[in-house]
Design a protein that fits this description.
Elements lengths: L2 H18 L9 E6 L2 E7 L15 E4 L4 E3 L8 H10 L5 E5 L2 H7 L10 H5 L6 E2 L9 H10 L5 E4 L3 E6 L2 H23 L9 H11 L3 H14 L3
Helix pairs in contact: 1-6, 1-8, 2-5, 3-6, 6-8
Length: 232
């Protein structure tokens, strides 16, 4: 299998994993990955289909201006989230944007994410919140603001909107999205009971975070196997 075929399969798997973990939002949400050997172009899930409906044939190709340059399906109007992050961050190879429901709800609280569980420990030092607009990211100007907010981070909460994650691989970006959503869900549960009394110490959080994220490839592979076993 060629490198581009491998990448396409990873995007297909990522879409199915995100959808199976309740991060699908009808036809909204998108995943992208740079084309191997070509830092100016990236593959993207097209508009009008669900995350779980990505195929090698319906993936589209866009450039860093946000223009579709290949593929028959329409592109998402929020392509600029991806194009501007990829333009600003040469280290990033893949970007995920979803309307993860617990993260959206948590964003409305205006509170910092705490080190409650394993996932929360990874984000305990704080993550940026994009609050410039709750509207869609429909042009380069807004895309640049999102990229600026993520300049020092691989994760972003978009207030009243969703999340963005960036990774060196599509597997890493996908698992970061899952971890962020789970961390938000855990805190919502605790907030409903009056708020956290005990959270991870800084030392424990750093230690756990250093053990959790390196397992991203294994977590991703497990979720792909689980979906396959379930016929997904």
């Amino acid at each position: 299998m060629s490198s581009i075929d491998t990448l396409k399969q990873s995007l297909i798997d990522a879409g199915r994993v995100l959808a199976s973990e309740d991060q699908g939002d009808f036809i909204f949400g998108h995943v992208t990955a740079r084309i191997p050997g070509d830092d100016q172009h990236f593959l993207m899930k097209p508009h009008q289909i669900g995350l779980e409906e990505i195929t090698a044939e319906n993936l589209i190709t866009c450039n860093l201006e946000g223009e579709k340059v290949a593929g028959g399906a329409p592109r998402h109007i929020e392509v600029f989230i991806h194009s501007e992050i990829l333009r600003a961050r040469p280290d990033v190879r893949a970007v995920v944007h979803t309307h993860a429901p617990n993260a959206v709800a948590f964003s409305a609280l205006g509170r910092p994410l705490q080190g409650i569980g394993h996932e929360g420990a990874y984000f305990h030092a704080g993550i940026p919140v994009f609050s410039e607009t709750a509207d869609l990211i429909i042009d380069q100007t807004r895309g640049k603001l999102v990229a600026r907010a993520m300049a020092e981070s691989d994760v972003l909460i978009m207030r009243n909107h969703g999340i963005v994650t960036a990774g060196r691989t599509i597997e890493e970006a996908t698992v970061l999205a899952l971890y962020l959503e789970r961390a938000c869900k855990s805190q919502l549960m605790v907030e409903a009971c009056g708020g956290a009394t005990h959270v991870c110490s800084h030392e424990d959080a750093v230690a756990k975070a250093g053990r959790v994220l390196p397992q991203s490839p294994n977590v991703f592979k497990y979720l792909v196997r689980r979906n396959a076993a379930a016929g997904g």
